[in-house]
Amino acid sequence: MAKAHSYKFCFGPWNISEGSDPYGPTTRPAQTFDWKLAQLKKLGFDAMMFHDDDAVPDIDSKSTAQILKQAKELKKRLDGEGIAAEMTAPRLWFAPQTVDGAYTSNDPKHRQYAIDRSLRCIDIGNILGTDLLVLWLAREGTYLREAKNAKRSTELLVQAFDKMLAHDKKVRLSIEPKPNEPMDHAYIPTIGHALAVAQLTHDPKRVGALIESAHCILAGLDPADEIDFCMTFGKLWSLHLNDQNGLKYDQDKPFGSTNLRSAFNQVRVLERNKYGSRGEYVCFDVHPFRTTKVEHWLAHLDNSRRTFLKLVEKSRSFDEAKSKQLIADRDYQALDQMVIEHLLGK
Prior knowledge:
Elements: E1 9-11, H1 33-42, E2 47-51, H2 52-55, H3 64-81, E3 84-89, H4 108-128, E4 132-136, E5 141-142, H5 150-167, E6 172-176, E7 185-186, H6 191-198, E8 207-212, H7 213-218, H8 223-232, E9 236-241, H9 260-272, E10 282-284, H10 299-317, H11 320-328, H12 332-344
Helix pairs in contact: 3-4, 4-5, 8-9, 9-10
């Protein structure tokens, strides 16, 4: 029997958050990027995710030369600490130019701003040693249907993607769908939409997807099925595991926190499709609860990784032969109980 592969893990600086929400201030004092970077190896993680302005703070105030210089300095630090950069992503939802969207803004100057910043983000990724550009299309949608034309907006997205693909012949675009928040409705709400729009670009092979558990749940979909669907196309290039309590705001709970069986099925699908065997990382896009004390600040990351690894064990010890027999007999009641008792440790 072939030896099962092991997994590599990562998180982003934003996953050590200070506890603010739309209705209240922070509950923990801010920590420096250096402090956050130092915690990564202590927790047994291998890589860090970077927004462009995580890698180069105040990026809009700096020249291209300054941006590239700072990216090279960061690369030295990462190499010195044995940390890889999993991806880079342009943070286009905070800028004043993207109030009406980034690539789909009704203002052509603002669309150009979004594209220019994305190209600089690709350059940063090249320096940091990653060819993966993640695109969370946060404001690519509308609050008001009459304000934008969805067909035209899709065409604008494709034009922007094509410019990124032309800018660098090795970059891979990984679209991270989300159905809502901050927009009322997003133009690319699901993995199916992401893979469909990829086919309109001039190099579909370099346009794939990132799946986030919570975003699937917000769309009323099952994360395990979305993972299976995406991997059928060979297009799952990154992964944000977390959890979500129903169809509400994006909660980014620790992995398995709300629905352990759903988490088990996500891990089982990853195992079945050998996710990670081609170098992909398991990323946890999780946040500490707002009530978390400073001394427990990193528990959500450690707990998510521990839960994942325990579910890997559960997946690998699941009696597949018995499961197949129950499926053949169409005894789904017994199969249901078998899964429950397996997760309970019976």
